[in-house]
Model the fold of this input.
Amino acid sequence: MDELSIKIKIADREYPMKVKRHEEERVRAAGKLINEKLKSYREQFGLDDKQDLLAMTAFDCLVEKLAAEETNQGVDQTVLDKVGHLNQLVSQAIA
Done:
């Protein structure tokens, strides 16, 4: 298999994991972003409790994911509408 054994450090704790070689960069970037969000919340709210920081980070990430999904659904519908319109134009042109 094309898997790597790596360690990702989140909130001062290391997590060993196996990832596909082509996903390594994304996994490491995700770990880095989580730690940056933890640091931001720690500084912004003066919190030191890791569970609170992790919960806030998880919540923030899910809100961002849901917003991105809503945007993608809008884009998908726009694309479908335009493809339908193009199909209609092509059908009219060849009729």
User: Anything to note?
Assistant: The first helix runs from residue 24 to 45. The CA atoms of residues 2 and 20 lie 6 Å apart. The mean pLDDT is 93. Residues 3-67 form one domain.
